[in-house]
Each structure stands twice: as C-alpha cells, then as structure tokens.
Input
Amino acid sequence: MISDLLSRIQAPASVRRGEVFAVRVTLAHPMETGFRYDEHGTQTPYNVINTFVCAYNGRPVFTAALSSGIAANPGFEFFIRARDSGELLFDWHDDEGHQGTARHAITVTS
Amino acid sequence: MIRHLALLTLALGACTSVAPIRNIAEPRSGVTFTSNDIRKLQNDDAANPGMLWVEQGKALWRAGVEGAGVDNKSCASCHGDAEQAMRGVAARYPVYDAAAGNILNLEGRINQCRVHRQHAEPLRYESEGLLALTSYVAHQSRGMPIQASIDGPARPHFEAGQAHYVTRQGQLNLSCAHCHERNWGKMLLAEPISQGQSNGFPAYRLEWQGLGSLHRRLRACQFGIRAERSAAGSQELLDLELYLAWRANGLPVEAPGVRR
Output
C-alpha cells in the first residue's frame, strides 16, 4: 500500500441549506485479513480499519465499524443534510494504531 | 519471369520495413470483457481505487527527491504542470531512446530521469512510488488513442516482442496468441478470455487488491501457463510491451484501469 493514511474525499464545496448531499470517500488500506502468508511463509498480521467516523461541525453524522471481509481500499458513500457552513472531519483508525484524518470545508448557502 | 519473381521475393525478404498486419484489426479493450460493476468502478473517478495512486503520483511529481537529489529537483521543476507537459506522452510509449540504446517504457523513462536529471536512486520496479508516478503520468493521456511507433531502431524490439508473443511457453505449452488471438471471447472457466490488450495499465486489479504494472500482469500470465517468469522490467517483457502497444494502437489509454 502507498500509505495507510491516504484518502480521497468527494463532496460538494457549496450546498443550499436543507439540501441532502452525497459524500464519497475512498481510504487507502490493505485491509489485511490475517489469513495471508507472504513468500517467506510468515503470516501477515490482521490489520483492518476498525473505525471510521465523519463529523459535521463536531457532531458525528456517520460512523462505521469495519472488520475482515471488506476489500482493500474501501469506499463509502453516505448522505448528509446541509445545516450550517463549516467542516466535515473524517477520522479513521486501524489495528496497528495508525490514524488517518481528512478535512473538507463546506459552505451552506440559503 | 521466374527469375524476376525470385528477385522480387528476395527483395521483399530482405526488406524489413514491410508494415506488419495485425491479426485483430479492430482491437477491443479488456474492460469490455468485464462485468458492469467493474466498468462502473473504472469509469467513476470517485470510486476507482486506482485514483489513490494517481493522487499519490501527483504529490510525488511536485515533491523534490529526498536525500540523493543534488538540488532537490522535482519532476515539476523541469516539466512544470504534468496535466499539460505529460498529455499524450503515455500513448506513445514504449519509445526508442538513443541515450539508453534501448526502448524505454514509462517506468524506464521515469527512472532514467531520476538517475540522470535528479541524481537519485532509481525506484524499484513495482514499488509504490514508481507505480504512483507511472499511473499519474499515464493518467494524463486518458482517452487518447495509443500510437506506438515501431519504426527505425524500435523495429528489432518489436520483432523480438512479436516472436515472444507467438512462442509456446511453459508446461501448458501455450503462446500468448493461443488464448488472446485465437480464443478471445470464449470462456475460461467463469471468465471470458480478453484480447490481452495493454491499454488499461497500470491497472487496479481486484485479484491483487492493488494497482500493478503491465509487467506484473504479464508475469501473472506466465504463472498461469506455468512458464518461467521473466523479471519485471526485463528486456523480453519490454519488447513484448512494445508489441502489445502496437497491437493496441487506436485503443484509448484507460490508466488507471480496473480489471478482475
């Protein structure tokens, strides 16, 4: 994997108040099941993104608890209703203790 | 008359610039042999996981080469904005390079730049950094038709690649052509056999759960027919890559493609 912490976020920069908008996220992660062996016969330890949270102006609006069985580089798509201008904060953790963070500024017009 | 014919045949035999004819006149991209879901994944930049590497490549393009670089030059220091400078480049590759005395694919060109211009260590073939840069550069030609040239000094490499393509290999005793020219479109267990076109690479392969180079894909084919695998970046795979590019001429560059 390139980096456990890389991500791509797609969300509109500006939405009208009350409108529902889509947020699409791809996280770079190998999502190791723990069942794989490398060419030297060593078991690759279990390591998946276990928590993913999206907070809208500090308030969690989407959370996901992931486990094995989810493909590498998982993608999410979810919908949020626009309330106030501010920030979407994405935050995720894996079993090796790595943390990823991404931000997306959003302007709400009335 | 017979003598004239014999002379003509001799002349034709000696002349290597006779334009070769493709067995598949109108090539079809590998993505047309995949499922709807995979096509959607490839066509939607927000969903295409290969875009993670493209994004990383964009960052590497602008970042100076750490440590080894004399004046910490980045790709952008010389080439500027890749969206303009690299547009259409991947569609012409592999190309013959006089300085190298060999054909270079994108990976080879990036490493040539790193060694001679940036005075840095070459990136290891199939390393994440090289994959990211290659897919970023290739992505700038997306949608443009492949136009690989096999003229001049590239010709012997083309012929070597062609010879490789039709030579039986491995315990299954198959050549590339057996599957991808004689039997494309038929089913191999649950999967349709594609024409083996190279226009989607570097591609995100679901089987790999990651992005890989064309050479990695070719090695996977060699494994499948139980042949001895060529090293990634080796001469035989480079020659084969040129042959495949010529074979795919006219197909749009899809990098980063998505495949099964």
The mean pLDDT of chain A is 91. The beta strands of chain A are 7-10, 14-16, 20-27, 49-56, 59-65, 75-81, 86-94, 99-109. Chain A has one domain: 7-109.
